[in-house]
Amino acid sequence: MSDSIRQRVHALGLTLPTASQPAANYISHVISGNQLFVSGQIPLIDGKPAYVGRLGESLSDEDGTQAAQLAALGLLGQLSDALDDDLSRLARTLRVGVFIAGSGHFNQQSAVANGASNLLVNALGDKGRHVRTAVGVSSLPAGVAVEVDAIFELQP
C-alpha cells in the first residue's frame, strides 16, 4: 500500500478533504511528544455542516453511519495535514471518540460509530485499529448528528 494518506483514501473511492479550520478559539490538531491530538471533526460537505438533526428523530441510523464516516474523513484530512501526507510517520491510531446526537430513546451509538471506525481501519490498515468511545449526547455544534475526535501515536 501507498505511504500517502491521500492515496489510501482515494483508493477507497473517496476524496480527502482539506483540513478544516477551527470554528472557535482552539487549534485543529497539536503534536505533543509522540502523540497527535485532533480536535472534534463534524461531517462537512463543501465546507458546510452535513447530516443536521438527531438520530431517532429526523435522521436514520444509516444517516448517522454516513455522518460518522464523513466526520472521520475530516480526521484523516487533519492527519494528512499534520504529517505532510506521510503515512510512514504514523505508528497507530490510539483512541477515537464518537459523539452522536440522538433522541432520548436512541441506543445504536456503537453501530453508528462503526462508520468512523471502519473508515479509519480501511484507510490506514492495522495503523487504524483503535480503542473507542461512542457517546450519546443531546446536541452537537452546528446541529450535526456526529462529531469525531482522535489521538494518534507518531513514530519516534
TrEMBL record:
CDD domains: YjgF_YER057c_UK114_like_1 (cd02199). SUPFAM superfamilies: YjgF-like. Residues 8-136 form the Endoribonuclease L-PSP/chorismate mutase-like domain. It comes from the Bacteria. Signal peptide: none annotated. InterPro entries: Endoribo_LPSP/chorism_mut-like, RutC-like_sf. PANTHER family: ENDORIBONUCLEASE L-PSP_CHORISMATE MUTASE-LIKE DOMAIN-CONTAINING PROTEIN, ENDORIBONUCLEASE-RELATED. This is Endoribonuclease L-PSP/chorismate mutase-like domain-containing protein.
